[in-house]
Design a protein that fits this description.
The protein has helices at residues 162-171, 189-197, 223-236, 251-261, 273-287, 333-348, 354-357, 422-437, and strands spanning 2-7, 17-23, 30-31, 36-41, 46-50, 55-60, 67-69, 73-79, 241-249, 293-296, 301-304, 310-312, 314-316, 319-321, 324-325, 362-365, 385-389, 393-399, 402-416. By secondary structure, it is of the alpha+beta class. Strand 13 and strand 14 form a beta hairpin. Helix 5 packs across helix 8 (422-437).
Length: 445
């Protein structure tokens, strides 16, 4: 018998520290290899970590809410194998992660025990951690399983037949959230379909701290919110922003959305006007490819991206993130719809992985879902433009000299004036608006 200590790993995003959000185990619990034991918050997302060995939990070395460095022991597990002693200078630098099916990043687990006491602290000031040398030879680390939206730690005990599990996986549904009506608590196909048809729940955002009396209240800025703030400041004071607006009649788009909802190709998918906006952006970018480019300051070059990796700004309980759909311009409309559904479901659950947020080339921010007409969005760092999609409302509109009720929205395009001049920005915005006004125009691109 021996005590193994699991160290906080780098999950593949250049991580230097993370916060322990919630423990999934307690002292005395028996764990199997790759069981999920803890949820951590990195600078980009929430990540569930599996344990790299089996045994009995002896001690949780870091309490919830504490931020620790990569390499810090966080849990002690009693195993059947003797513990291997490592010295302080043998804290390994973990290798680059492998990509799993679907573009998700594999979570890498930590190495063996550390005989010295863990150095903990509540919060680290800004600045990177020094590099550490990897041991030679490095221990063999079992590859864990990354929990996906439909295979979370809680869903492994759910009763469902393989076809039903496949359906849930295709729809991006967590079976643990589905109400079972089958015999013996089995989830049926109808249960999954009813879950999809149910109204979308409101995202439960973290409530602002209640301030009483006349004293000030301080809330630490960390995690996703900290990274978002740094990125927005860097973008706003690096790229010269220009914002253009256009108000457009999208009645034909709204009619198309209703037709698509009844189309068998979109069965079991959620179709919304955002889908048509996303498609319009990928098509309009063909005519104005500079909107899908980037400014390389060091090389003093403009980099035209080979694919449209379409980012969708998502407000999550822990802050704003921008996951993106890789190669969105190459997807059919049903495939793009499914990708949007998956992106939204994963973001709502707080399970968006770092790989899903990297490599974006153009962003849409759908402020309309909050009832906002438009705004002046800040460009996502490393991109050339961002489109704000406002609320779609019925308003009086002049058609053939007659005032009639029509579905109206406002689009706002912010772009980097180093790359994009007014003519190109205007052309792109007008093309997007033209497709939304008359979706048949998409045949011209």
């Amino acid at each position: 018998m021996g005590i193994q200590q699991f160290r906080l790993p780098d999950v593949g995003e250049g991580l230097v520290e993370a916060e322990i959000v919630s423990w999934k185990v307690k002292p005395g619990d028996t764990v199997k290899l790759n069981d999920t034991i803890v949820e951590i918050e990195t600078a980009k997302s929430l990540v569930e970590l599996p344990v790299p060995f089996a045994g009995v939990v002896k001690e949780l070395l870091v309490p919830e809410g504490e931020t620790v460095d990569v390499g810090t022991p966080i849990i002690a597990v009693e195993t059947d194998s003797p513990a291997e002693a490592l010295t302080d200078d043998m804290v390994p630098t973990l290798p680059e992660p492998e990509e799993e099916t679907g573009g998700r990043t594999a979570v890498l687990v930590g190495y063996g025990p550390k005989t010295t006491e863990a150095k903990r602290r509540t919060r680290k000031p800004s600045g990177g951690a020094p590099a550490v040398a990897a041991p030679a030879p490095a221990p063999v680390v079992p590859k864990p399983v990354v929990a996906k939206s439909n295979e979370t730690a809680g869903s492994v005990h759910v009763l469902a037949k393989p076809p039903v599990r496949k359906l849930a996986k295709d729809l991006g549904i967590d079976l643990g959230a589905v109400t079972a009506t089958g015999p013996g608590g089995i989830i049926t196909r109808a249960d999954v379909e009813n879950h999809v048809a149910a109204p979308e729940p409101q995202v439960a955002y973290e409530a602002a701290p209640v301030v009483s009396g006349r004293g000030d209240t301080r809330v630490p800025v960390k995690g996703v919110q900290k990274v978002m703030a740094q990125a927005m400041v860097a973008s706003a004071f690096t790229a010269p922003h220009v914002t253009e607006w256009i108000t457009v009649d999208v009645s034909a788009t709204m009619e198309l959305v209703e037709r698509l909802k009844a189309d068998k190709a979109f069965r079991e998918l959620r179709v919304s006007p955002l889908l048509i906006v996303a498609k319009a952006v990928t098509l309009a970018a063909r005519r104005t490819p500079i909107v899908n480019a980037a400014w390389d300051e060091q090389a003093q070059e403009i980099v035209y991206k080979g694919a449209v990796n379409l980012g969708i700004a998502a407000a999550t309980p822990r802050g704003l993130i921008v996951p993106n759909i890789k190669g969105a311009d190459a997807l059919t409309l049903p495939d793009l719809c499914k990708a949007l559904n998956d992106l939204v479901a994963t973001a709502r659950e707080g399970k968006t992985q770092p790989a899903d947020q990297a490599g974006g080339s153009f962003t849409i921010t759908n402020v309309g879902v909050f009832g906002v007409d438009a705004g002046t969005p800040i460009i996502n760092p490393g991109e050339a433009a961002i489109l704000a999609f406002g609320a779609v409302r019925k308003q009086p509109w002049v058609v053939d000299d007659q005032i009639v009720p029509r579905w109206i929205t406002t689009l706002a395009l912010s772009f980097d004036h180093r790359l994009i001049d007014g003519e190109k920005g205007s052309t792109f915005l007008a093309d997007v608006a033209g497709i939304l006004e008359d979706p048949a125009r998409a045949l011209m691109f």
